[in-house]
């Protein structure tokens, strides 16, 4: 099972992930795309990356705004896998 990150580790990781914030036992980011189809296309790219990593975010789609919530449910909180997927999502947003 994945090991939970300490509060200090989470805070340090979020310094390098300025678009993300902690929300309880998860890290969360909302991305606004120029159009609904572009938002869904980003979700598709994130889904492919998540499947490849075998680590899947909770995703909430609201028109052009998509919120990604990362938590390792089996561990009960935030792990290195969540931070790594957040970095991947950021690269897809900016790529």
How does this structure look, described?
The chain is of the alpha+beta class and about 100 residues long. It is built from 3 helices and 4 strands, in the order H-E-E-H-E-E-H. Strands 1-2-4-3 form a 4-stranded antiparallel sheet. Strand 1 (about 20-25) and strand 2 form a beta hairpin. The protein is globular, with a radius of gyration of 13 Å. The relative contact order is 0.25. The model has no long low-confidence stretch (mean pLDDT about 95).
Kindly summarize this structure in a few lines.
This protein is an alpha+beta fold.
List keywords for this structure.
3 helices, 44% helix, single chain, 22% strand, 95 residues, globular, four-stranded antiparallel sheet, alpha+beta
Instruction: Describe the global form.
Output: globular
Question: What oligomeric state do these chains adopt?
Answer: single chain
Total count of strands: 4
User: How many H/I helices?
Assistant: 3
How far apart lie the N and C ends?
Answer: 31 Å
**Proportion of helical residues:** 40-55%
| Global Rg | 13 Å
Strand order in the sheet with the most strands: 1-2-4-3
N to C succession of SSEs: HEEHEEH
The largest β sheet comes out as:
4 strands, antiparallel
